[in-house]
Fold:
Amino acid sequence: MRCLVISDIHANLAALQAVMDDVAARATAYDIVWCLGDVVGYGAEPNECIDLLRALPHICLAGNHDWAVTGKLDLHAFHEQAAYVVEWTQANLTPENMSYLKARPELLPHEDYLLVHASPREPIWEYITDINVAEDNFDYMSSPFCLVGHTHVPVIFVKDGRTNNVHVSMPSANVPVVLKRDSRYIINPGSVGQPRDGDPRAAYAILDITTSTWTPYRVEYAIADTQKKMRSFHFPPRLVERLNYGR
Ligand code: ZN
Structure:
């Protein structure tokens, strides 16, 4: 089985569409989309992104922005600029899409894989930004592999099965990584709609469960189109500008 793994779309339709077009152009057949949460927030096309996702065979986790929009998280936990867009999204989301967001699960085990937005220890809120945090989180996994989003940075943490040491690597686009059966992994595909690793291109990955192969990809999209829509709703300039830099 092959999974298209995406995360943190953040209501950026041009980026999501570019990912889908790129997958189609590669003739990379996939069976299902695994979306690791934060479909909304920051961007100006939440309904369009949810509609596109819902038209695909998919599963989707709950992210912190999704929870904020549905009222499950206190807005005070958010930066002022992010909170502005959360409130805008609350006012503009269709009732059907609000119900969809409310129904997203926090954790989803699938055979050898655990799917979660943030971390196994704190599924909605913890940022796995370094080896120490990753190391702690391996203790909260009963499966060998965990897929996370939330930091918007593509990364692979490996706990070596023989030495128990944890290593980190930043995977290169288009280079397949074969997951070793005697080790454990926490893997982040990066962000579709708001990359923060200094590369403004949309990030996604293809996971082949049969061969245990993870292949990350990056794709350019029409950033200016996304920014135009954000500006038309007077979104905070910092949120609009950062798309240029992937920071
Ligand atoms: Zn996010």
Observations:
- The two ends are 33 Å apart (CA to CA).
